[in-house]
Amino acid sequence: MLLIEIPVAFLLGLTSVIRGWGRVDEQTAAPPMDWVPVLWLGGFTLGVLVIAVLFLYAAHPFAGAVQLLVAAIALCFAIAAWNHQYERAHPRPLPTRAGMSPSNHVTDR
Question: pTM of the full predicted structure?
Answer without folding.
Answer: 0.67
